[in-house]
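Our collaborator T.R. sent over the components below with a one-line note: 'Predict the complex.' Nothing else. No constraints on interfaces, no templates requested, no preferences about which chain binds where. So this is a plain run: every listed entity goes in together, and whatever single assembly comes back becomes the starting point for the next discussion.
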Amino acid sequence: MVITRKVEFSASHVCRNPQFSDEENQRLFGPAANPHGHGHNYVVEVSLRGDPDPVTGMVLDLKELKEILTREIVDPYDHRFLNYEVPPFDRVVPTTENIARDIWQRLEPRLNDERRQLHAVRVYETPDLYVDYFGEHPCST
Amino acid sequence: MFHVTRRYEFAASHRLHSVELSEERNRELYGKCNNPYGHGHNYVIEVSVRGPLDDATGRAVDTARLDELVRGQVIVPFDHRNLNAEVAVFSRTVPTSENLGYEICRRLKQHWKQAFPGEWPKLERIRIGETPRNIFEVGADEIE
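Returned assembly:
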């Protein structure tokens, strides 16, 4: 069974690789390379796969899941400039792909146990663009 | 491996009518969708692409290039058109969302290598929403 919980955060970022010239960054990232940055209302959907506990009937108490998501994602990301305030984005370009992977890495050790595993992280940068990340398991390629 | 999905919209009219069936059978089968004057929808399409991360850009797909491909192959030819009358394939094939899904997938696959000449990213699937309640999904591997 897969359960999904959604959280939101608002943050600013700039997509540029310091190894490239301004012109090259502009070509690669378009308006997202504007050095002053810009922002999005990000929406994150976190899915867990597991069996319901025979006593509680729950894969994970949704209240507990909400607390974990708030602590691990919303608190560090919300109302921040990702490049300046949220490692690893001081050295990793904060594309939606890299944000999805960072969220996966933050959550996996907090959620996985013998009953359940993190299944998917979906990050919407806008309602028109989202990334799904299932970890680096060979079966997902 | 990352799965990137981009959402687009176009507005078009169509009529569901099969030349292989009688007038009566068409009316019975397609109901309101068989109205001879046609009707329209705001179609929403989602194009999903998969690929590894490009180390230099931190991205799995150049979305500007994907936009250009989808715009050229789907949005421009379909938007504000009568599909039966103005998109050649639908003069022979009933423009159901299933067939529209196949056609969109086929167009993207045919021009994929021009837009993305490398091994990655690959087209994974397209989803088409005729209305928010009717969604159709086609995997890129399902068609030639």
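Summary for T.R.: The beta strands of chain B are 2-14, 39-51, 81-82, 122-131, 134-139.
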